[in-house]
Amino acid sequence: MPITWLQYRCNAFDMEMETDALFGHLLACKTNDHLVSLVYDSDLPIRDLASTLPPFLQACRKLECLELFVAYPANGIDLLVQSWLEIRPESLEKVRINILEIQAEDKCANLMSLARELKFRGLNINVNLF
Question: What's the domain of life for this entry (predicted)?
Answer without folding.
Answer: Eukaryota
